[in-house]
Amino acid sequence: GKIKLLFKQRNEAPPIVILHTSSEEHDAINSFKKEENSYFLLKPIKSEELYKTLRQAIKSSEKETVAYNPLQKEEPSPLMTSPHVLLVDDNPVNMMLNNRMMESLIPNVRLAEATDGLQALEQCRGQVFDLLLMDVQMPVMDGIEATKQIRLLPEYAKIPIIGVTAGNVLGEKEKCLDAGMSDFLPKPLRQNDLLEMLKKHIATGVQRLPEDNKHPEMYLDMNILKEQMGGDDDFRKVFLNLVVKELFLAQENLKSGIKEKNTGYLKQILHKVRGTAGTAGLIKLVEQTASWESRIEDNMDYTAMENEIVHEINTGLELIKNLIS
Q1: What is the mean pLDDT of the chain?
Q2: Distance separating alpha carbons of residues 120 and 88, to the nearest angstrom
Q3: pLDDT over threshold 60, residue 11
Q4: CA torsion 275→276→278→283, rounded to 10°?
Q5: Are residues 224 and 196 in the same domain?
Q6: Distance CA 215, CA 220 (A)
Q7: Does the residue 95 lie in any domain?
Q8: What confidence score (pLDDT) does residue 209 get?
Q9: Which of 132, 177, 196, 216 is surrounded by the most beta carbons within 10 Å?
Q10: Residue 127: predicted pLDDT
């Protein structure tokens, strides 16, 4: 009764998972079975059954949340759009929860996983992530040693690495910072704590439209876009989604070219982005890409170019995604 009352007070309909034995009163269990989002597991609990039940409950909860308030306007996220995040943890339960929290907090996050520090190091050698969430105590190579090795990679000198610690191990926090971790969070990981940490370390990548979206016409020429799309709603949806896909891909290709300092490849990327932007009416992005394409050279300021182009791409993404929704 108290549980149900608490849910009603909060106006929520979260899933309820009941753990019971075969000898328990059927009347008590049947009272919960009347609830649509109730789930039952018979003791002793098997890990596979628990996993399936939790996955089913999460999916059900997501559907109910959307159905409960379908007209609620989504607030702009304070975090970087579509970052590439590496989750490093040897515990599958922690990994599942970390995936869930990241997906709920970061728009269009792209997640990769590693179950020990050595795997994390190998993945970092092959690509550049925007953020690492690193468990400290792991087999093969722990998070402390992995962080030390990753920091030796030139492109990871300033990438945020957040350590996840037991919290009660003497000196562990100091070891995290000494190894090169940007910050740390105690276990068990809480979503609000993680959100604050993400705001601290990847909020600088947030690309909001100036003056709270009051002048989108400075960035998007709707007349050009409408001319391209015509009056076919189906084509409009396909076209806009394709533009979003191409802009996301352009970000990845741009970072790759900058990492390799490949000016020829970067010219090709900028030229292609300019074409996409021109077709989609993203006039400011057209200006920026044209400007950098004309002055690209071997000893150029790659960081400045990346910041400006990524800023305009993210601005364009927000505008186009608003039209889709």
Answers
A1: 79
A2: 7
A3: no
A4: -120
A5: no
A6: 9
A7: yes
A8: 47
A9: 132
A10: 86
Least Cα distance to 114 among 146, 83, 82 occurs for 146
Total length of the chain: 325
- CA-to-CA separations, 185 to 167, 174, 191, in angstroms, rounded: 8, 12, 11
Domain boundary among 68, 93, 119: 68
Phi first, then psi, for residue 136 (nearest 5°) are: -85, -50
Token look-up 């608003």 returns 322
Query: How many C-beta neighbours within 10 Å does residue 100 have?
Result: 14
Q: Is the dihedral of CA 306, 312, 318, 324 positive or negative?
A: negative
Domain-ending residue, one of 205, 237, 263: 205
Which of 4-18, 164-178, 294-308 has the lowest average pLDDT? 4-18
Cα Rg for the chain, rounded, in angstroms? 24
- For residue 290, being part of any structural domain is answered with yes
Interacting residues of 274 by C-beta distance below 8 A, sequence separation 6+: 285, 286, 289, 290, 293
Q: How far apart are CA 129 and CA 84, in angstroms?
A: 5
Least confident among 33-37, 85-89, 311-315 = 33-37
Structure tokens at 263: 């000016």
* Residue 269 burial (C-beta neighbours within 10 Å; 0-12, 13-18, 19+): buried
Would residue 75 count as lying in a domain? no
Secondary structure percentages of the chain, helix, strand, coil, to 5: 60, 10, 30
* Beta pairing, strands 161-165 & 38-42: unpaired
Give tens-digit pLDDT for 71-81: 444 455 567 77
Same domain, yes or no: 112 and 184: yes
With contact defined as beta carbons under 8 Å apart, do 319 and 298 qualify?
Answer: no
Comparing CA positions, the residue from 179, 89, 190, 166 lying closest to residue 132 is 89
Mean pLDDT of 180-193: 88
* Residues 121/141, Cβ–Cβ less than 8 Å: yes
Helical H runs in 106-140? 117-126
Give the chain's domain count.
3
Domain enclosing residue 273, as ranges? 210-324
The amino acid occupying position 98 is N
